[in-house]
Amino acid sequence: MAKSSALNLGTGAFVALGFAALAFLTTQTTSRGVHISSPPHYDVIAKFDNVGDLKVGAPVSMSGVEIGRVARIDLDTREYKAVVLLRLNAKYNQIPTDSDASIYTQGLLGGKFIGLTAGGADTYLKNKDHIDFTQSAFVLENLIGQVLANFTKSSGSSAAPATAPAEKSK
Amino acid sequence: MNPLKELWESLLESVAGLGAVTAFLMRLIMHTPRTLLRFDLIVRQIFNSGALSLVIIMLSGLFVGMVLGLQGFQLLERFGSEEALGTAAAIGLVKELGPVVTALLFAGRAGTALASELGLMRATDQLSAMEMMAVDPIQRVVVPRFIGGVIAMPLLAAIFSLIGIYGAQLVGVQIMGVDSGSFWSQMRAGVDLRDVNEGIVKSCIFGVACSLIAVYEGYYAVPTAEGVGRATTRTVVTSAVVVLFLDYLLTAAFL
Amino acid sequence: MNQNTSIVEIRNLDYAVRKRPIFSGLDLDIVRGRVTAIMGPSGTGKTTLLRLITGQLTADGGSIHVAGEDMRTVRRADLYLLRRRMGMLFQNGALLTDLSVFENVAFPLREHTRLPERLIRDLVLTKLQAVGLRGAAEMMPAELSGGMTRRVALARAIVMDPQILIYDEPFVGLDPISKGVILRLIRRLNDALDLTSIVVSHDVQEISAVADTVYLLSGGKVVARGTPQELQSYPSEIVRQFIGGLADGPVPFHYPAPDYFSELLSRGEVH
Fold it and tell me: B97, CA 20 to 30 Å: which among A49, A75, B80, C82?
């Protein structure tokens, strides 16, 4: 009957739309989702003392341009360093092997991301290469500790010259 | 009458009502396997509860998403974190606004339709006639509507969240100038599959609650015009309270 | 077949709703093959009696046997089988509003049998022809008049060839022509299909034209029983009042109230 096939069509369209929405939400909004376009890539490893709250899926950029993503974060239990796997877009294959990787913060309270600064070598990073020069994440508590340490150091050194001239004048 | 006594009696009434509703749910579940054989009835009800609610769900999703984009942008701008708008909008919609607002809209549109349909069938003796013709009205009329609602709800919530994210993007990226790449990449980094799953589970549970309340009120409506009207009103009110209460429970449980 | 067997036997029936007794010690027989009418003033529980016969309600005391089944102990599956041998015409027709006339009449066939579509079509059209509405097969219930709705409901009630046909207030709200149609159908169908018909009504004239036996209920008991002619000259005040349509008698005109004079006076004092 024409009436029931129109009904079936309508219901089918609705259900299909619903599942498409679910599929979109589960894959396109999460970091663990399957991205429809997975461009060819190569992996590079970098070790950090402290990655802060860097997340898997965070962008890897060079000169402000996104060239890849953080694919994995592990702990090296021998050296006690964080081992980060960077998945770089294959078309950016001319990154010098002595480039350094640093962890930056987006905005004031944003998430962490990795920025690469080019070195001067003639050889380029290939799949499974290591980045040797790394800079760890900026951890607020450490900075405060540093400031306090500097402050006490400088107040200690200003004390010393105060006594010396006193002695000289004698 | 003593107000304390009134309170006590209405409390007892509510508890008795809760028991009746639970018993009704058990009845519906027991009849479900046989009803699945009449899939054509269920398809029609999915159409009635789901497809016919699409317009209001999509419109509401769009506007809620746009407001979320505006408010989120304003708030995040104070901390210089506008790029996190994607995360904020997605999480807000997928975990909370999607399931809850969809459930409330569902109760208002589809829930009232279910309750009034069943109430009217009760009032015009159609349900009695079916019983007299040895057709179980629960199986033929009530369970398909219940299942239709339960299936439609999570799908509607997903569509709401999807359109909402688009709306937030529309405001944030197109109008307020947030970087499109950051919007999506931050969202991808900030939203976990677990968040999406929580939202789906919530909307499924809300679907059961709203559909159950609607068919219960309709089936047991007083068979007069006034009775059907009251059943419809009670559907919306009860659904709203139950959904919001369940929302708190589920959010706390997932934490 | 024994001419005078009862297909419905009610003995000593007790039924109360929320402590208010509707029936106490009711005895009633519905004889096979006849048209039996159940009459009484409004509120005597005629519809309740029908519900007790069809098993929608269960008696508190006494016994009801329908076609051999004890309605107080019958199991759900047997009850459903029994109901397939009964047809019921509701006061407002009770057609399913989302189905066409044809689909409404076909409904019991589709639900209970696996007959091929062609056979269903023939059966439905035959029954619609019997009630004179074959031409209305494609209409929707909302488009029908009151009389037509009831006729379609009647076609639906007989589509499974029941043994018992129950009419709940079939004449209410109909114009004289439609009433005549229903009357003719009740008699014709009963005789042609070898049915037992139970008609609940309070239309004395119509009942007299069509019933073989009449029961008059009042106050939860049977107050009169006989043929329509016997009831015309029944030696009982309440029967006289009912048959004659008298405003006052055993069923009082005035709802119970305190003494008129004193109530008027007391109002004067309050003022």
Answer: B80
Let me know if residue C142 belongs to a domain: no
Report the range out of A21-30, A53-62, B151-160, C178-187 with the highest average pLDDT.
Answer: B151-160
Chains adjacent to A (≥3 CB pairs closer than 8 angstroms)? B
Residue B16 Cα, gap to closest chain A Cα (Å): 37
Residue A66 lies in a domain: yes
Three-class secondary structure of residue C85 per DSSP: coil
C148 inside domain: no
In this structure, is residue A159 part of a structural domain?
A: no
- Whether chains A and C touch (3+ CB pairs under 8 A) is answered by no
C90 contacts in chain B (CB < 8 Å): 125, 128-129
In a domain, B12, yes or no: no
- Beta-bridge partners for C94: none
CA distance A73 to A82: 7
The first and second tokens of residue C149, run together, are: 């709705």
Burial of C66 (0-12, 13-18, 19+ CB in 10 A): buried
Contacts 24+ apart (CB under 8 A), C258-266: none
Exposed / middle / buried, residue C142 (Cβ in 10 Å: 0-12, 13-18, 19+): exposed
**SS3 letters across C166-212:** EEECCCCCCCHHHHHHHHHHHHHHHHHCCCEEEEECCCHHHHHHHCC
Q: Tell me the shortest Cα–Cα distance from B8 to chain C, in angstroms.
A: 23
Tally of domains within chain B: 1
Which chain A residue has its CA at the smallest distance from B47's CA? A11
Of C184, C191, C239, C236, which Cα lies nearest the Cα of C206? C184
Using DSSP bridges, classify how beta strands A59-62 and A65-76 pair: parallel, antiparallel or unpaired. Answer: antiparallel
Q: Is residue A89 one of the residues assigned to a domain?
A: yes
- Collect all residues with Cβ–Cβ distance below 8 Å to C72 and sequence separation of at least 6: C58, C59, C63, C64
In a mutational test of the A interface, the residue from B38, B40, B41, B47 whose CB has the highest number of chain A CBs within 10 Å is: B47
Range of the domain at C265: 6-85+162-270
In chain C, the number of structural domains is 1
Could you report the per-residue pLDDT of A77-93, keeping only the tens digit for each?
888 899 999 988 888 88
Number of domains forming the structure of chain A: 1
Do the Cβ atoms of B135 and C91 come within 8 Å? Answer: no
Show the domain range for B219: 39-254
Q: Confirm whether B23 is domain-assigned.
A: no
The per-residue pLDDT for range C126-140, each reduced to its tens digit, is 999 988 899 988 999
Q: Tokens 């297909």: give the residue.
A: C7
Has residue B43 been placed in a domain? yes
φ and ψ of C98, to 5 deg:
-95, 5
